[in-house]
Amino acid sequence: MDRIELCREKFKELFGGEPVKNEGTDPEFMRILQRFIFGEICYTGDLDNQIRELITIVVLAVNQTLPQLKAHTQASLNVGCTPVEIREAIYQCAPFIGFPKTLNAIAVINEVFTEQKIALPIQSQETIPDDQRYQAGLAVQEQFYGNEWKGRYEWLTEEYAEAVPRFLTEFCFGDFATRTGLDAKRRELLILVIHAALGCAGDQIKSHTKGAMKAGNTPDTITGALLHAMPYMGFPRLLDALNAVGEILEGE
Q1: Mean pLDDT in each 10-residue stretch from start to end of the chain (252 residues)?
Q2: How many domains does the chain have?
Q3: Are 215 and 207 in contact (CB under 8 A)?
């Protein structure tokens, strides 16, 4: 099949309808968009529809492109992602994009869930009591990132030198990485994609590439995930991320 036929096939899988032909005010642009994303990008690499849609929704949450997030939340359900998986992917954005943007994204996915008569709130995925956030978070942090962060902020005054790494451990890892609903492999891959979508490069991308690989992601999966994110975040951020990832993969 050519990319027009592939686009039609993928679009139906995701959205249950037909791609644009001549409808709307800008059919030419929509044909370029749809044929590239759904006729080419979605067939490059071996990622399945479910992880592709989870990648898409976290990038859309990062960018706060909320109408598209609504469409892809429905697409995620259409290809078999569970409400829990979708919610956990969005929750995982919070340490990196902040609470307000995450709340905006949560409102959008909950709108879709309500339309689909999915009961809210969705079942809890918490696994640890509040007083174990640090130790449980530290176990995950050291598993995937070692102790490279230790001592990095000793130049701060005593209060902040203690608080910054503790908040990193308790919030990023204790509050989120200990939750069920997403396995570590997918969670770490999505964290890497979130950093790429934010425009992070250098040390943070390198660190999260190592973490994603320790969680079981292959170089091909990492490359495929970043490429899939490209139409939603742009080529410059893809290339910046690949440059940093390449330094890690070439050293393996």
Answers
A1: 97 97 95 98 98 98 98 98 98 98 98 98 97 97 85 88 94 97 98 97 91 97 98 97 92 66
A2: 2
A3: no
- Domain range for residue 23? 1-43
Q: What is the 3-state secondary structure (H, E, C) of the chain?
A: CCHHHHHHHHHHHHHCCCCCCCCCCCHHHHHHHHHHHHHCHHHCCCCCHHHHHHHHHHHHHHHCCHHHHHHHHHHHHHCCCCHHHHHHHHHCCHHHHCHHHHHHHHHHHHHHHHHCCCCCCCCCCCCCCHHHHHHHHHHHHHHHHCCCCCCCCCCCCHHHHHHHHHHHHHHHHHHHHCCCCCCHHHHHHHHHHHHHHHCCCCHHHHHHHHHHHHCCCCHHHHHHHHHHHHHHHCHHHHHHHHHHHHHHHCCC
Asked if residue 1 belongs to a domain, the reply is yes
37 part of a folded domain:
yes
The token duo for 70 is 């609504």
Query: Does 51 fall in a domain?
Result: no
Residue 23 in any domain: the answer is yes
